[in-house]
Model the fold of this input.
Amino acid sequence: MKKLTLIAGLAFGLFSFVPTEATTWGIDGVHSRVGFSINHLGINDVLGYFTKYESIITSSKEDFSDAVFEFSAEAASVSTGFDGLDGHLKQPDMFDVVAHPRLTFKSTSVAKKDDKNYEVKGDLTLHGVTKSITLKAVKSAAIVHPMTKKTVVGFKLSGVINRKDFKVGVELPGVVASEEVTIIANTEFAKN
Done:
């Protein structure tokens, strides 16, 4: 009997360490927007976003506490709604879309604060510079989409970076455009 109990205990111990298979979640580009906000002249916030991007979340836990967030955008897809400003943002002193055609983010850690709130740390690469940043993430409840029948979840992510840390608009005075840029991502992901 002791032998059987010992064997059962060992078997349970071995199987309890088998890693759970990770689930990937793909972004719904129609119902998501990823961009930024920057203050102009201390008066008004100008909004911009990227029209061509990819993003996935990989997680083996249902509560996303071990999630990895990955994002990549074509810098040339930046849009503010104003052609002249979009053209300026693509120039070498700003995003430099020829030399640095993509911007990327990959999380290095996720800290779950409560049922909805997370702190996401990761590496942002922009204008050829990679820096660690921290984003706040607010998760919506996961539901089954009524039309696609896939499980979907939403995340609102935000954080503040200094554009000069990434060599963006170094010569542009802070009075014209704030050095602080707020990252804004309202996203919807479908379980693959």
Summary: The longest helix spans residues 2-16. The longest strand covers residues 177-191.
